[in-house]
């Protein structure tokens, strides 16, 4: 089966009518994208509200499920952890109970960056709708690409760094690739929390790191020792006869510069807290908005004859 114009028209006249039809379709699409942008703005406003510092905040359980190493809870309000109680029963450290000081809350830089990215995306939409040339396909395509990149980066920050233990296999080549992000996830030793944020103040040989990963808060406790410390006779004898063994973890052979001193990690315990409902909702909303933006870029590319470039 074939299609043809009847009665036949000259080739130049047919080409002219095709161009006119394509121009009308492009004009309609650019007008409809203004409605799409308004819908995206509403969705991003909802995402921004999920990170607002609204009391009483979200209280999350921070307890290791199969041991008594870490037990407790923390309360997050916006990008700060304002209170909490933690009990640590580590193998190489005396039991300790800590409270998070309400006067010096812990700041989560990932959430601060998320708020900045959401602000950037809202500004991008406002510029696209009210400042630039809404009839220019090139301008709209560039703005949609910029918006898509910002949302992908926000999803990458929400996902957080990969958490693989030495016993876990690396992801296969067929596993989905996480969204890219230019956000610098600071290592635990670069910008440790203020010891005064805990009550009693955190000892110098104990490190607590709290960060975001997979829409949950992850707490990592580390027992530290001076890198150049010599083992005493009892320790050497215990290691020699097998009565005592080093606790194996992924950082056991590394040396870190922590608060001006070279240290080793003697023991490391990580616990993934309960999923934060605000983070789960935020991830779902951002994922849906990313699909809308990508679909808009594809539609515009089809009409203008451009292929969607990989970001």
TrEMBL record:
Pfam families: Rogdi_lz (PF10259). Residues 166-203 are annotated as: Disordered. One of its GO terms (cellular component) is RAVE complex. InterPro entries: RAVE2/Rogdi. Residues 167-181, 190-203 have a biased composition (Pro residues). It comes from the Eukaryota. This is RAVE subunit 2/Rogdi. It comes from Oidiodendron maius (strain Zn).
């Amino acid at each position: 089966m074939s299609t043809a114009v009847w009665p036949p028209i000259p080739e130049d006249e047919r080409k002219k009518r095709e161009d006119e039809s394509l121009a009308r379709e492009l004009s309609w699409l650019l007008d409809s994208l203004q409605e799409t942008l308004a819908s995206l703005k509403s969705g991003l406003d909802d995402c921004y509200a999920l990170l607002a510092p609204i009391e009483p905040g979200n209280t999350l359980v921070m307890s290791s499920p199969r041991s008594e190493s870490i037990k407790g809870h923390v309360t997050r309000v916006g990008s700060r952890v304002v209170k909490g109680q933690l009990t640590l029963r580590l193998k190489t450290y005396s039991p300790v109970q800590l409270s998070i000081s309400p006067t010096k809350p812990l700041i989560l830089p990932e959430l601060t960056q998320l708020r900045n990215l959401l602000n950037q995306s809202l500004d991008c939409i406002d510029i696209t709708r009210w400042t630039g040339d809404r009839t220019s396909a090139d301008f709209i395509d560039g703005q949609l690409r910029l918006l898509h990149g910002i949302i992908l980066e926000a999803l990458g920050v929400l996902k957080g760094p990969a958490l693989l233990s030495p016993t876990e296999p690396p992801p296969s080549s067929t596993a989905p690739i996480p969204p890219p992000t230019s956000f610098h996830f600071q290592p635990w030793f670069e910008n440790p929390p203020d010891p005064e944020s805990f009550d009693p103040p955190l000892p110098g040989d104990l490190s607590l790191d709290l960060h975001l990963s997979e829409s949950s808060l992850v707490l990592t406790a580390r027992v530290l020792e001076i890198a150049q410390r010599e083992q005493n006779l009892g320790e050497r004898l215990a290691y020699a006869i097998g009565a005592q063994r080093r606790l194996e973890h992924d950082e056991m052979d590394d040396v870190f510069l922590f608060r001006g001193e070279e240290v080793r990690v003697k023991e490391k315990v990580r616990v993934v807290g309960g999923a934060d409902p605000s983070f789960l909702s935020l991830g779902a909303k951002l994922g849906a908005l990313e699909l809308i933006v990508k679909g808009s870029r594809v539609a515009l590319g089809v009409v203008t004859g451009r292929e969607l470039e990989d970001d």
